[in-house]
Design a protein that fits this description.
heterodimer, A: 47% strand, B: mainly beta, 7-stranded mixed beta sheet, 4-stranded antiparallel beta sheet, 11 strands, globular
């Protein structure tokens, strides 16, 4: 995958965690980074688009940022229902889009 | 409400073809393209391609180029993904998703997924 994520992350309820997504130098990564949450057996859900924007209905505990070639998803005030797998996605060039390998978030 | 409803699970033999449908409702179908994404068992998400619902333009991932065809039927608000010459490693859950250009081309509505099993 052109997008690299850590395979796992964990935190206790109430804590904050940050998941990273290291991308390419493609100009698309400057703008078109999105994050999806997926619970087991369910379809992905859009949590962040355009690096740091939240769709309506997504709690403001979820935030996105980017520095250089690394985008990040931060979940503040962890809750049990945040336990899921998180995927970053971005334009990877040549009219292709890609996903990171996914990060399984465990709420301890 | 806005939703995408996909066709049911399929079991196919290697070398066969499968065609998955994705019916949209609750919005103007021709306003947004459809992405197709698959997920092999225990694996991550893999973007397969995109089809325009406005002019039928397509854009396929290199990995499936030549074996996949994505189409739409605006009379029934349905998108289709056909994958030919199936291989064992095509076993996966296949999702359709609405692409929103206003959201940086992110996919905001997803179908429930269609499980395709390739088995001899």
């Amino acid at each position: 995958s052109a997008l690299t994520q850590p395979p796992s992350a964990s935190g206790s309820p109430g804590q904050s965690i940050t998941i990273s997504c290291t991308g390419t130098s493609d100009v698309g990564f400057d703008t078109y980074v999105s994050w999806y949450q997926q619970h087991p057996g369910k379809a992905p859900k859009l949590m962040i688009y355009e690096v740091n924007k939240r769709p309506s209905g997504v709690p403001d505990r979820f935030s996105g940022s980017k520095s250089g070639n690394t985008a990040s998803l931060t979940v503040s005030g962890l809750r049990a229902e945040d336990e899921a797998e998180y995927f970053c996605s971005s334009y990877t060039g040549s009219n292709n889009w890609g996903f990171g390998g996914g990060t399984k978030l465990t709420v301890l | 409400q806005v939703q995408l409803v996909q066709s049911g699970a399929e079991v196919k033999k290697p070398g066969a073809s499968v065609k998955v449908s994705c019916k949209a409702s609750g919005y103007t179908f021709s306003s947004y393209g459809i992405n197709w994404v698959r997920q092999a068992p225990g694996q991550g998400l893999e973007w397969m391609g995109w089809v325009s619902t406005y002019n039928t333009n397509t854009n396929y991932a290199q990995k499936v180029q030549g074996r996949v065809t994505m189409t739409t039927d605006t009379s029934t608000n349905t998108a289709y993904m056909e994958l030919r010459s199936l291989r064992f490693d095509d076993t996966a859950v296949y999702f359709c998703a609405r692409e929103r250009w206003e959201l940086g081309y992110a996919s905001d509505i997803w179908g429930q997924g269609t499980k395709v099993i390739v088995s001899s």
